[in-house]
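Protein in question kept underneath.
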Amino acid sequence: MASDNDAEVPVVTPNRAATHLARVAEVRDSALAIGQRAVNESRALLVQASGGLAKIKNKVLEKPGIRETEERVVSAVNKLADAVENVLDNATGKAMLDEIRALVEHQGLYNDVLATKLAEALDRLEHIESRAASLEARLLKLEQHG
């Protein structure tokens, strides 16, 4: 008799695992798309802002050291955008999901090899059993005649 504390452990089948991976991928892809849109919009705003400041920029850039400062600021914004992308990848589990997919694919290949080897072994076993039956029949004939 099972008690209330006995919890039934769900069986994880390849189909359930694939369904779960697909759901995780959907959530990850959705979060990644939202994050990517944020990054793209940030970059677009930067381009728009720098375009809107073009008139002021030309006058300001004539001052010494300003071009180098602008390049550093643009570089810093691009690094920030890249860092946001990396954080989004980590937060959505993209790397982990990619690793799980690779492991599932590797396991599938391994299973294919095992299935092939098993089929070959069964074919050899069938052949050996057939030869053994043939030899046994010959032996019985010899015993009957001799």
